[in-house]
Amino acid sequence: xxxxxxxxxxxxxxxxxxxxxxxxxxxxxxxxxxxxxxxxxxxxxxxxxxxxxxxxxxxxxxxxxxxxxxxxxxxxxxxxxxxxxxxxxxxxxxxxxxxxxxxxxxxxxxxxxxxxxxxxxxxxxxxxxxxxxxxxxxxxxxxxxxxxxxxxxxxxxxxxxxxxxxxxxxxxxxxxxxxxxxxxxxxxxxxxxxxxxxxxxxxxxxxxxxxxxxxxxxxxxxxxxxxxxxxxxxxxxxxxxxxxxxxxxxxxxxxxxxxxxxxxxxxxxxxxxxxxxxxxxxxxxxxxxxxxxxxxxxxxxxxxxxxxxxxxxxxxxxxxxxxxxxxxxxxxxxxxxxxxxxxxxxxxxxxxxxxxxxxxxxxxxxxxxxxxxxxxxxxxxxxxxxxxxxxxxxxxxxxxxxxxxxxxxxxxxxxxxxxxxxxxxxxxxxxxxxxxxxxxxxxxxxxxxxxxxxxxxxxxxxxxxxxxxxxxxxxxxxxxxxxxxxxxxxxxxxxxxxxxxxxxxxxxxxxxxxxxxxxxxxxxxxxxxxxxxxxxxxxxxxxxxxxxxxxxxxxxxxxxxxxxxxxxxxxxxxxxxxxxxxxxxxxxxxxxxxxx
Length: 596
Hints:
By secondary structure, the protein is an alpha/beta fold. It contains 19 helices and 13 strands.
């Protein structure tokens, strides 16, 4: 209960407009979920008592302290993932090792409150347990046996969440239309317990013939590429810039944003092939890199990179371009091994990985995640100048990652006005991009380079409602080439595109034939209608850019793409295309045949 109070206080901006009665209801709805968590964590203590008979505090605190810490971490992190943490999310917590002090520096008051609440709870628990420990458990007393039977019965009932026919699942928390209210009712311990050992991806079959499903996904639409006039005399270099947490809503693409925090990126988008309805393929960095480097969408609970399917064969950008004679590299200023990027990019065929270990000036570190963006992009530009052409290189920024630390010399960004701390970091990285391009345009490789810019995922929803699922995935995606002043008008800038379309688009631009791509993707240069699919545990989104199907626990709602509060008539074609996506994705992973 105390952690739910902290969850509400820490994120009060998201709940400020809720009715008091609804907030009270959320706490009431949450009681059974708390019962489940408490009961399951007390069962080992009871078993310990039966076997050991004393020192109950040992199993109690070994279980409670880690769960308490994870709950406190999730108070902030749920906003980035759009949901409470699940068992598969624990792998991402490893990235926080040795970074705790830096991460919590921006949340000192709340961490102190959490420590006080936790300390009071643990002290009270210790006193109770210590008192009980004075009389070791024995089966010799009739009263002791009755007492243990009653305790076990209560714990069994509690572990089910009550006396209803079926045990509680996350579905039972859907008491509100607004997503954040349902998240308030849940607790992270419950979600961890309910997702241990769960299959990350059920195999589904909806169509008698698999070809029927393939015809309904993006890759099943055959069309010829529409490419600009290109008279290049040499193979073109490729640079992909992946921007940490650069949401669409922070940029000039958002019509409701009266102040853009990305003036340089806005100016570059005017000179580029920019898609105004571009979507992230996932909500986590580890998912964004898999999508951009290999075209793999995030349509299951566990990220592909760490899932049981990570040993599947897949076609990576590095592999394809290495076969074309390209020097291939990936740059990320964080610790080597962060998010398994080094292992994944190697498997994607990228020959050279540059992390924090390879960076020559460790004093440029932010003390938490890695090297500040400004020095790191300068280093990156210098590295590109030293490479043999043609080259393919990707860079992943990090200064707009929580806790949004900036160098002391960049104090001017402290004065950026905005309702969230990330906006100052976004403005900082935008100015870094300006410096990068100013430097790059003087280099000999610049005029023969295609630049692709994409966010890895969205950041906190600052100007949009949390339960607007579509806005939670909208990012900028753009293609820029110094020698292409105008891209073909026939390319529909309003059509849905997503990160998984980047590999296929690159193969078209470079005119590399016969490369296998993920069936759910299609090159941005190939016209035709498109759909976008997103997955949050218990919920699917399917949209054609006009209507959005929200499928949540077998309940379907249809809303307008630009106005999630406006319900629209059901669209059977969206239902059919969502089934096709589920089948193609699940069978593709289970049969190791995602590419065609």
